[in-house]
Amino acid sequence: MINVGRINQLEVTKEADFGWFLDGKDYGSILLTKRHAPEGVAIGDVVDVFLYFDADNQIAATTEKPVAQVGEWGLMKVEGINSIGAFASWGIKEKDLLIPFSEQRGRLSAGQTILVYVYTDKASGRIVGTTKFNKLLDKTPARYTTNQQVDLLIAERSDLGYKAIINGEHWGMIFPSDVFGKLFIGKQLTGYIKQVRSDGKIDLTLQKVGVAKMDDLSEKILSLLEKKGGFLPLSDKSTPEAIFATFKTSKGTYKKSIGGLYKQGKISIDKDGIRLIQE
């Protein structure tokens, strides 16, 4: 099955002076120009190509990889504006992605870097982008549980914190008290469900909640100690930055975890770091 707007695996069927023709199934032969062909390609090879509609509305193939395929979000720079909308660079040099005015949540301007969702417009068949995410999200009930691991995409920043897209399906919020490390629009990371409120809104965290958080971190500390020969140069006096760089957690949580391990007799806490106590 051929999916325009996504990367496909197509067989090379014919060579020409200007490139190679690929087996596009129901779409017929699709040209892959020499400029976009892999080095050493030959008839019978199967190549990974991204399919899109060119300026003449014909299917074109390229080995360039887009920032986002159809059905995905991506961070893109607005290159220009005309009478029908904005055009953003999405990794395909021959053609920018159209974001129609009707699909803009607030007018865009050239030079902006924005998060865009790529989809196929049913009416025109064109591949376009949108910044109106509300119509894509929260269409199904949020059946998450506390401490459930989820995939997050940072989509917006506000006075309340960071709005994130959960598993490509729901909105969630990361409040400042649950932010560790550097977050920015377009960043993808793993997070956890903190709670689903009675009104359906979802609070997120970047580390597990409560005892589960402590247990998870304690296991990571012990595992890394074993890999590092029983010593880590991270004590309760280490900087928050050094602790986060290693364990992606706050200094407060780290101190509680090593304190618990110390009370259990599993580690010693010294000025220069922590040491594993061999049983």
Automatic annotation (TrEMBL):
Residues 219-276 form the Conserved virulence factor B-like winged helix domain. Residues 4-63, 75-132 form the Conserved virulence factor B first S1 domain. Pfam families: S1_2 (PF13509), WHD_CvfB (PF17783). Gene3D superfamilies: Nucleic acid-binding proteins, Winged helix-like DNA-binding domain superfamily/Winged helix DNA-binding domain. Signal peptide: none annotated. InterPro entries: CvfB_fam, CvfB_S1_st, CvfB_WH, NA-bd_OB-fold, WH-like_DNA-bd_sf. Belongs to the CvfB family. This is GntR family transcriptional regulator. It comes from Vibrio thalassae.
